[in-house]
Write a structure and sequence with these properties.
392 residues; 5-stranded antiparallel sheet
Length: 392
């Protein structure tokens, strides 16, 4: 009997060795699994541990899991800010997750989301604490200090070099205004470097400020910011002008993008609409409490003649424009209205999705006292390993 068991064991052992899958097939299977499974499988053996942490595998895994959800940041006082995730399309929120780090200033600012990586910084502070955070794998990283005390940040992915980059542009409050400065942080090198703007800004500058309150759009590999300039006009009267500044994330070069010829409006912003650059202008509507939103879309990036006015929407009780979803739905904040909560009256805002083409409107369940920060979100293994990465 024992001899038969030994023979059967030998057969099973030979069969297992003969039927082992090639490493390439194993990695292809692993790349299709969710993040939580891969975190467990790293403990299976050393080759799997090292393979799953490689940038090439992380990039392949990201391509296989590129479906989008949304992250909704609810600004709250430090030390306990929180965020929540929402499903794509329906915007039905799921339980909140806590931000696991704190700032020296009183408030956190949600910079944005890129390929599953969230970026936060301090708000209204000279300290410029900047954190990268992947809540899927429960890890975060505090970036080293940068050179300029006040900066506006954005995060994007450099597809050519398989690298996350954080771009910061200085916000100078001195008078007269010093020239704009820029720095770029590379996750692969774990360091900041100064980048020249390489373009001539308006002469005799008196005033320069960001006029976009949304996260900077990312279109055709370029980050974009809108500025308002005021100069003395060389003695011929003050002149006011808008400038759309672009940054190529791969080449790290700045450039100026032309804006469409437009009329007067009380405010404006740039965003992206179905992957194209969009300019939104806001004017007072004819009806009381109504706002006209003109949506301009640049059909061919960088070509001024390709600006096209897509639609003019009339929205009642508009309080704020939040952005467009992946499918081009217009997410807006309306109100506020007084709501009774525990026998107390509180101001609450409502949120609605508007289809610019069909004009269909749908209110969503999310409510908040303040404006929400919304960005796309997806699973990713980024920050799985690296210097100064903290697990919690």
């Amino acid at each position: 009997m024992s001899q038969r068991k030994e023979e059967r064991g030998a057969i099973l052992q030979r069969k297992t060795k003969r039927d082992d899958l090639p490493d390439e097939i194993v990695l292809e299977i692993l790349a299709k699994l969710p993040v939580k499974s891969l975190l467990r499988f790293r403990c299976f053996c050393k080759p799997w541990y090292s393979s799953i942490a490689k940038p090439s595998f992380i990039s392949t895994h990201h391509l296989n899991h590129s479906h989008h959800g949304y992250v909704i940041h609810i600004p709250r006082n430090i030390p306990a800010p929180s965020s929540s995730l929402a499903c794509d399309g329906a915007f039905e929120t799921i339980p909140e997750f806590r931000v696991p780090f704190t700032f020296q200033s009183e408030f956190s600012h949600f910079v944005g989301s890129c390929n599953g990586m969230l970026c936060f910084t301090s708000y209204g502070s000279k300290f410029n604490d900047v954190y990268l955070w992947n809540p899927n794998i429960r890890k975060f990283k505090r970036l080293p200090n940068n050179q300029f005390p006040f900066m506006t940040f954005e995060i994007r992915f450099d597809s050519q070099n398989n690298d996350f980059k954080v771009v910061g542009i200085s916000q100078a409050f001195a008078n007269p205004k010093p020239p704009l400065e820029a720095e770029v942080f590379s996750l692969s090198s774990d360091s900041w470097k100064r980048v020249e703007l390489g373009i001539s800004l308006r002469p005799n500058l008196l005033y320069c400020n960001f006029i976009n309150y949304l996260p900077s759009p990312f279109v055709s590999g370029h980050l974009l910011w809108m500025f308002k300039f005021l100069d003395d006009g060389g003695g011929q009267g003050r002149r006011c002008a808008d400038l759309l500044l672009s940054f190529d994330v791969n080449s790290e070069k700045f450039n100026e993008v032309p804006l469409p010829n437009k009329g007067n409006c009380f405010t404006k912003c740039v965003t992206s609409f179905k992957g194209e650059l969009a300019l939104i202008e806001f004017r007072s509507g004819v009806q009381p409490h109504s706002t006209l939103c003109s949506i301009w879309v640049m059909r061919e990036y960088g070509v001024i003649d390709s600006w096209n006015k897509l639609r003019v929407l009339s929205i009642e009780n508009l309080h704020d424009f939040v952005g467009f979803t992946k499918y081009g739905l217009h997410l807006v904040q309306k109100g506020p209205w007084l709501v009774s909560t525990n026998s107390k009256l509180k101001r609450k805002h409502k949120y609605a999705l508007i289809d610019p083409e069909t004009l269909h409107k749908k209110e969503i369940s999310t409510q908040a006292d303040h404006r929400l920060d919304v960005a796309t979100y997806m699973e990713n293994l980024a920050l799985l390993d690296g210097r100064n990465v903290v697990s919690y």
